[in-house]
Amino acid sequence: LEWFKRILRDHYEDTFLKGPQFNPTLPDFMTICMHSSPACFTWGNTASSAIFVLPSKGSGCLPTMWWCAGPPCNGIYVPVFVHGTKLPAFVENAGTAGRRVTAPNKAIKDNYSSDSYWWESRSLLDITKGDDIGSTWNIRHPVVRKVFDELEAKFAKELQPVEREAANLMQGGDTEKAGQILNSFTEKCFAESLETVRGLQQEIVRFGQPLFP
User: Mind listing the pLDDT tens digit of every residue in the chain (213 residues)?
Assistant: First the structure.
């Protein structure tokens, strides 16, 4: 799992290319973890990413999706379960455009909403960058990454007993209760993540000053 996270957060830092020259939000290359380029040669920011853990039969583990909103280098992976039945409303919420099925050429532009987990994550990304060239990224991003790494490790540790309990219930035929337990854990993790995202939005502005605010 940790290796896949590292891959999805990569900008060629540990390769012979030694990218990026300045910071990931001023990209030199098309990377897996993509950021909007002021020169417009990328496809914008990574919208989201997911890692699917498919355990072997009889392992006592459950299929799990670790999902991250926005570019994963500045985000946090949260566990979501195949055997869960719902997500928190603030995770399902879009921004001002709302949820609708429409043709791409007729879709209206979505904008920030405080009721949307994705948009709060996007807001943190923008604050971490400071401006279009990411002039505060190298100062603010390490603060974000340290906090998120610790929270991801906490989720992974707490997941183990929850997973065992749900797996035992399912083996005994009580899939409904198992689903409730998994839903509760996912909701708790997302709530902690959202609280952390909002806290970081306030904290990291103390570090560095954007060149082009």
Answer: 999 999 999 999 989 988 898 999 999 999 999 999 999 999 999 999 999 999 998 888 999 999 999 999 999 999 999 999 999 999 999 898 887 888 989 888 899 999 999 999 999 999 999 999 999 999 999 999 999 999 999 999 999 999 999 999 999 999 999 999 999 999 999 999 999 999 999 999 999 999 998
Q: Which of 130, 104, 89, 124 is nearest to 196 (CA)?
A: 124
Mark residue 98 as left, alpha or beta (left: phi above 0; alpha: psi -120 to 50; beta: remaining).
left
Which residues neighbour 14 within 8 Å (Cβ) at sequence distance 6 or greater? none
Cβ atoms of 152 and 76 closer than 8 Å:
yes
CA distances (Å), origin 126, targets 22, 82, 129, 162, 187? 17, 32, 5, 34, 25
Closest alpha carbon to 182 in 21, 62, 66, 25: 62
Q: For residue 182, how many other CB atoms are within 10 A of its CB? A: 27
Place of tokens 């914008």: 44
Q: Cβ of 6: how many Cβ atoms within 10 Å? A: 12
Q: How far is CA 18 from CA 4, 21, 25, in A?
A: 20, 7, 15
User: Distance between CA 37 and CA 24 in Å, rounded?
Assistant: 9
